[in-house]
Amino acid sequence: MSRYRGPRFKKIRRLGALPGLTNKKPKVGSDLRNQSRSGKRSQYRIRLEEKQKLRFHYGLTERQLIKYVRIARQAKGSTGQVLLQLLEMRLDNIIFRLGMASTIPGARQLVNHRHILVNGHIVDIPSYRCKPRDIIMTKDEQKSKDMIQTYLDSSLQHELPKHLTLQAAQYKGIVNQIIDSNWVGLKINELLVVEYYSRQT
Q: Which region ranges are annotated with the description Disordered (predicted)?
């Protein structure tokens, strides 16, 4: 299944706020109307919606998400927490969390168009896994800086996660450590996602 490119507002009306997909918010009461029409939800549907929420927030294909679940299963620790850490440490998500892009698709475009350096080298792979002490910078070109500045100006009021440091004047972000799962910017029950895939694979 390919990456979703359809109406974003339709997804947040059904699944709730997805800050990585769009900064728009559903209208007050829209979730209640949807729930009243749909009636009681089955356990399968609850797990499916949690999986969809994770997939659409991070902008992943089904194949990519399955791959991350398999990697998380093989790692030490809680599979759900490891899964969230893997997704949060993606380069496109780090750029979004630093405020250098308004959404994860926007951050992915910056990476694909080679506007981003990691440790002084251009990285054009949005799924690049960032590590502690990585330095993420904008390419030293005015066009790149102007694009990033627009996003930084509108995101300065947001609280920055503790695992990141932003030096806005230098268009630079630093990864301090692996993210604490408490700082994941999405209301998600990751265990339901793991359970969903345990029944599918």
A: 20-43
